[in-house]
Recover the amino acids of this structure.
């Protein structure tokens, strides 16, 4: 049977088994459905929680606003020492007190900094004065901060140390036109209010109330409430974002705050990570009290994964067994023969021939492929060896050519620099002295101008041959550029450099070139130098060049 047929049969079996496990995809579909349902549930729940939980608080806020508008209270706030005005204000405020659910109120006057408080226990007292507010005290900073920023309404959880109570206060400014006369309001007992929240709270959600900065104002865990938020620095506040697990979730919730504030009383829902699990955060902005209400809902409570564990385990074992069988069969038929072929190809890459060893389970297509490969690999090896020989020869030739001047076949700059480095190294290691001669052809430009560049090239070739003949085996000759040549000479004899320089300068061995039936005497300007301690190649080139120009200009 061909490998294609075998593979199709095995694929069919796998697809049948995969179909059996396709019900697992329902888990993902179920999660999507449940998440969608939880979002709708959260939207309805948060609006419902707002109505049942915050309605009493909203009522207290409205009453506080009405309380701050009492004309007798405003008149007394302007003249706090006027006994008659104080009595009138006392009568009106005590009549109003019973309208507050906590049967209490407070008054803080700006003009004399006095703080007054009345509840059921103190109503019978003739004097409601409790203490004098002090701007230097941290506990009283809320009073001055509210008037400083002109915040008409402020809700905050704050302990009153003087009264010995912790309440959810609704603070309202007493205004007379643009003038601020003081602060009034009422308070709800924090413990009672929180117990109501916990009792009304859904088993699947956790409700948090915050101000616009995210500072926690109400929460079932009292130790996380940010008391006296208005007087704290930003970094000292207990914020709802600190309840989340990562920075990504904090960023998502902050964006949700912005959207909710732009659309008051509308629910914005986002997914965050809290307490190590994925939760839906539903946020609604309540403009009546300038607070945000946030409900955290744990999605896992709606999706009991544990009920799937037993079935999941059974199907997982079945899938593993099926995959093992498929793996073994596929290995025998396909992967092992291919591994043998791969091993042979790797050996071929190292210029070695290794015949693949195939088992009887290998498919006929693979056997035919291997046979074709063996024929091809033998031919390829032969061709590769032949090509490598040609490449090696060509590389050697290219290396040689790259170091030669194409016109004169002397060393070019690159080739000559290699010898210069070699000579300098021998000088450093063995103190083998050497010299450098810089040669410039006199009046070469005139030859080019008079006879043309073709003749100029011919002259340069003759000069190159002449220099090689003069130097012989004593050194290296290069064409440094244009009509400038350099010679490196080993100083076997102390006068070698001097002798060769003299030959070139004094025409002891003149170079005469016939051009257009005319004999032209080629003359040189020559500068030489010997290596010295501390020399670099640049130092020697500079001295030789300088010496050559001294000779050249002296001739002129």
């Amino acid at each position: 049977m061909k490998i294609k047929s075998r593979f199709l049969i095995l694929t069919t079996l796998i697809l049948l088994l995969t179909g059996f496990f396709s019900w697992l995809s329902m888990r993902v579909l179920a999660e999507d459905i449940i998440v969608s349902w939880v979002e709708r549930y959260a939207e309805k729940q948060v609006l419902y929680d707002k109505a049942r939980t915050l309605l009493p608080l909203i009522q207290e806020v409205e009453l506080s606003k009405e309380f701050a508008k009492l004309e007798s209270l405003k008149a007394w706030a302007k003249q706090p020492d006027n006994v008659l005005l104080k009595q009138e204000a006392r009568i009106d405020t005590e009549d109003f007190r019973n309208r507050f659910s906590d049967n209490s109120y407070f008054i803080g006057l700006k003009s004399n900094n006095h703080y007054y408080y009345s509840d059921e226990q103190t109503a019978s007292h003739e004097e409601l004065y409790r203490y004098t507010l002090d701007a230097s005290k941290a506990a009283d900073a809320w009073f001055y901060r509210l008037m400083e920023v002109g915040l008409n309404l402020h809700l905050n959880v704050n302990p009153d140390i003087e009264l010995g109570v912790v309440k959810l206060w609704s603070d309202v400014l007493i205004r007379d036109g643009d003038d601020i006369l003081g602060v009034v309001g009422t308070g709800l007992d924090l413990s009672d209010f929180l117990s109501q929240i916990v009792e009304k709270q859904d088993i699947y959600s956790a409700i948090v109330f915050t101000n616009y900065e995210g500072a926690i104002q109400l929460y079932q865990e009292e130790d996380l409430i940010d008391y006296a938020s208005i007087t704290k620095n930003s970094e000292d506040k207990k914020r709802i974002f600190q309840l989340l697990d990562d920075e990504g979730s904090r960023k998502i919730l902050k964006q949700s705050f912005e959207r909710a504030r732009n659309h008051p009383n509308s629910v914005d829902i986002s997914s965050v990570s809290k307490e190590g699990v994925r939760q839906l955060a539903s946020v609604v902005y309540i403009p009546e009290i300038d607070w945000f209400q946030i409900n955290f809902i744990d999605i896992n409570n709606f999706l009991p994964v544990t009920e799937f564990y037993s079935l999941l385990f059974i199907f997982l074992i079945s899938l593993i067994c099926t995959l093992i069988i498929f793996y073994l069969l596929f290995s025998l038929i396909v992967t092992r023969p291919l591994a043998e072929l791969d091993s042979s190809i790797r050996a071929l890459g190292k210029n070695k021939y290794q015949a693949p060893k195939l088992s009887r389970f290998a498919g006929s297509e693979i056997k035919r492929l291997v046979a074709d490969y063996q024929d091809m690999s033998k031919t390829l090896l032969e061709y590769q060896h032949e090509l490598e020989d040609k490449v090696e020869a060509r590389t050697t030739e290219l290396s040689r050519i790259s170091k030669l001047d194409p016109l004169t076949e002397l060393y070019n700059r690159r080739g000559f620099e290699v010898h210069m480095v070699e000579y300098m190294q021998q000088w450093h290691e063995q103190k083998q002295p050497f010299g450098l001669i810089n040669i410039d052809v006199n009046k070469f430009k005139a030859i080019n101008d008079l006879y043309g560049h073709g003749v100029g090239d011919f002259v340069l070739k003759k000069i190159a041959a002449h220099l090689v003949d003069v130097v012989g085996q004593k050194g290296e000759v290069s064409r440094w550029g244009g009509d400038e040549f350099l010679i490196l000479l080993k100083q076997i004899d102390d006068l070698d450099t001097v002798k060769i320089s003299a030959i070139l300068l004094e025409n002891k061995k003149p170079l005469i070139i016939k051009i257009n039936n005319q004999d032209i005497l080629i003359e040189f300007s020559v500068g030489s130098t010997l290596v010295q301690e501390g020399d670099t190649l640049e130092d020697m080139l500079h001295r030789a060049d300088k010496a050559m120009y001294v000779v050249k200009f002296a001739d002129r």
In short: Residues 25-68 form the longest helix (44 residues). The chain has 14 helices and 17 strands. The longest strand covers residues 165-176.
